[in-house]
Design goal:
Strand content: 5-15%
CATH topology of the largest domain: TIM Barrel
Structural class: alpha/beta
Helix content: 40-55%
Largest sheet: 8 strands, parallel, barrel
Strand order of the largest sheet: 1-2-3-4-5-6-7-8
CATH class of the largest domain: Alpha Beta
CATH superfamily of the largest domain: Aldolase class I
Radius of gyration: 31 Å
Distance between the termini: 75 Å
């Protein structure tokens, strides 16, 4: 059985108000601990709600099983068995010991009452329990009701074969020296006081340091404790002192120093959730729950300080961050590098300097990877329920953008079929055939799912910020912006959308891979069918406008009879997908991104999200007018255009209403459900507005 030595990380415990351990989050936490240098993992300790879970045996077993699975049973586990009744402690030791033969245990004095004879208390437990597992004893006078275990007691207990080590704060030098004399290959000494790691390790003779360990709570986030222990083993004194100073600084910056108790748990839980805020949208919801006696909310200043310091620690490589591709696939940086080492086009980019992300996206997991010679965007199609074509959509669109494909070509269908059949490749625009709208080169794509279980693309990074971020910056900093500068920008955006819509086809297609194929799709029938399906579904989901929607369509559907020009739609043309660069006199449009939803449809459809996500929040009549004026450089907008836009907006709101209602069951946390209900209500109000207009 492997002994507990080195860096023993007292794992935080994430749980909800029903005292259920969050397995999704713990899977991530365990992987993070391993990447950042944990030699052993300590579950349900004093920093892991050990007192709170003292009688929650089922939850303990659930977390032990999960941790063994994630670690592949290769990392020693140690579990805190705390209580106030020694017979109950023995029962838990025996039940868990027989179930998990290689599990290690930590026991301690009662935490609610002070006892007179501590020696007899432990003699009874160690002498009665009938398991072969290693048992360690935890001494912490403050945490365990003033019960103190002095060196003489430890010396008397060491005769028990199953007593394998002792955990102490090691701040009493004389006590510590006495414990050190007991160290050998069968008995370990573990120090839990983060401020005394360096002093403790230097007190231990060099030849005995391989038998000792440190128990750093900060290692729930950072890797410095692993580096410190290595320096102690290698007798690197200067680095040892420097690392201890850094750990002390981290404690001041990451812990909730305003709290009397629970400062470590509160600060580190928030820091960890912030670090992996993009792993799951629900992580931050009601998972930062502490034991009842430790509860307390972080103030906003403390949150901002922790967030800023986490970013600093990442940049300094004091945190090794995991990279997720969906919930089931989590990689560390070396894994990511190995995965793409066989992509030939990347070999010329030099070494990877930094990986940034993941960035928020509904369909993809997205990272920005900084190479020595370039910056690239890696997009992984991780949403399993993606409703559109299961291909890299840029590979079909980009040849139309530079004229390599012409919708009037007699052999268009054969060319489309050939492109669809190519499952690995690239599409780079040449200087003499630039695209009609600014887009990034498709450096590489792979649809085979052989390298990783997802379709993925590698694209050039478009420098700048999203138009939404630019507006938020102006609003937050209360900047007075040049009206003419923004009017010109939106005029240019309207013209760009018009250029995209100049790519037209002979017929409508439900799927883009059918472009060039003879089609008998009747656009009006298709739209009426979609309305019927979505209206009935919305009615089942308590939207009481079924009859009103039917009346609205009856009165207005004839406007769509003239819709007979199939064109390329971006289908998500709005400010988050428009990358710009701001300067004093001009806002440059550097690129349009995210073509995952592009399809063949009618022009009015492409204005729905622009209206709802961009023009409506900006709420500036001049900007709105300028956008449409730019579009009119390419197309005439008839007097019925905006009524058509209302019809397509109504269909889009119905689809979003149904989709949002359908996702309610998967949400965790009252805030998430509340926000989703707000969203559903906003869609309902927009539906009401349109049908009553």
């Amino acid at each position: 059985m492997t002994k507990i030595r080195g860096v023993i990380v007292p794992s935080l415990t994430f749980f909800n108000e029903d005292l259920e351990v969050n397995t999704e989050l713990h899977s991530l936490l365990t992987r993070h601990l391993l990447v950042n240098g944990a030699d052993s993992i300590y579950l349900f300790g004093t920093k892991g709600a050990g007192f709170y879970f003292s009688d929650k045996l089922e939850e303990k077993i659930k977390l032990i099983n999960l941790t063994l699975e994630v670690t592949g049973k290769k990392t020693p586990l140690i579990v805190g068995i705390f209580g106030n009744n020694k017979d109950r402690i023995i029962d838990q030791l025996e039940e868990l010991g027989k179930k998990f033969g290689k599990l290690n245990f930590i026991i301690a004095p009662p935490y609610l009452e002070k006892i007179e004879d501590i020696n007899s208390y432990f003699e009874y437990i160690l002498g009665t329990v009938n398991i072969d597992n290693h048992i360690y004893i935890h001494n912490n006078r403050e945490k365990f009701a003033g019960n103190e275990i002095n060196p003489s007691i430890v010396k008397e207990l060491i005769v028990y074969d199953n007593f394998s080590g002792f955990i102490d704060s090691c701040d009493n030098i004389n006590y510590c020296k006495s414990y050190i004399k007991l160290i050998n290959e069968n008995f370990s000494l573990l120090c839990e006081n983060e401020e005394t790691f360096q002093k403790f390790l230097q007190l231990v003779p060099l030849d005995l340091r391989k038998y000792v360990g440190i128990v750093p709570c900060v290692s729930n986030l950072v890797n410095l404790s692993s580096k410190l222990y290595f320096c102690a083993i290698e007798e690197k004194i200067l680095e040892l002192h420097q690392l201890q100073e850094q750990i002390n600084d981290i404690r001041n910056k990451l812990y909730d120093i305003k709290a009397q108790d629970g400062k470590e748990q509160r600060g580190l839980k928030y820091a960890f959730l912030y670090l992996y805020k993009n792993f799951s949208p629900n992580l931050i919801e009601d998972l930062n729950i502490l034991s009842p006696n430790l509860k307390g909310n972080l103030d906003e200043i403390t949150k901002e300080r922790i967030e800023a310091y986490v970013n600093y620690l990442i940049n300094q490589k004091h945190i090794y961050q995991l990279y997720s591709l969906g919930k089931d696939n989590i990689y560390q940086l070396d894994d990511m590098i190995n995965i793409f080492s066989n992509v030939e086009v990347l070999l010329s980019q030099g070494n990877i300097k930094k990986v940034i992300g993941p960035f928020d996206a509904d369909i993809n997991t997205i990272y920005r990877v900084n190479f020595e010679k370039s910056q690239l965007i890696f997009k992984f199609r991780t949403l399993k329920s993606f409703q559109y074509e299961n291909i890299v959509k840029e590979k079909l669109l980009f040849p139309f953008l530079d004229g390599s494909l012409n919708s009037n070509s007699f052999d268009l269908r054969e060319k489309i079929k050939k492109i669809v059949s190519i499952r690995k490749g690239e599409y780079q625009f040449s200087s003499d055939k630039p695209p009609i709208v600014p887009v990034a080169n498709l450096v590489y794509f792979d649809e085979t799912k052989e390298v990783i279980p997802y379709i993925f693309t590698i694209q050039e990074y478009v420098h700048g910020k999203s138009l939404k971020d630019l507006f938020n910056q102006y609003s937050k900093e209360d900047l007075s912006f040049s009206k003419s500068k923004f009017l010109t920008l939106f005029n240019n955006l309207g013209e760009l959308l018009g250029k995209l819509h100049t790519i037209s086809f002979d017929s409508f297609q439900e799927h883009i891979y059918n472009i060039g194929k003879m089609s008998k799709i009747n656009w009006l029938e298709l739209i009426i069918s979609e309305f019927e399906i979505e209206s009935q579904e919305a009615s089942r989901k308590k939207l009481d406008y079924y009859n009103e929607i039917k009346t609205f369509l009856k009165d207005n559907i004839s406007l769509l009879e003239e819709e007979n020009e199939p064109v390329v739609l971006h289908n998500d043309f709005q400010w988050t997908n428009l990358i710009v660069k701001d300067s004093p006199n001009k806002i440059q449009i550097n690129g349009i991104i995210d073509f995952d939803n592009w399809r063949v449809g009618v022009r009015a459809q492409d204005f729905v999200k622009m209206e709802y996500y961009t023009l409506k929040p900006i709420n500036n009549s001049g900007i709105r007018e300028s956008f449409y004026k730019g579009y009119k450089k390419k197309f005439i907008i008839g007097q019925d255009f905006f009524k058509k836009l209302d019809i397509y907006s109504l269909l889009w709101f119905l689809k979003n209403y149904n989709s949002s209602y359908g996702n309610l069951a998967n949400l965790k946390g009252s805030n998430s459900i509340y926000e989703r209900y707000k969203l559903i209500n906003s869609y309902a109000k927009e539906i009401e507005r349109i049908i009553n207009s």
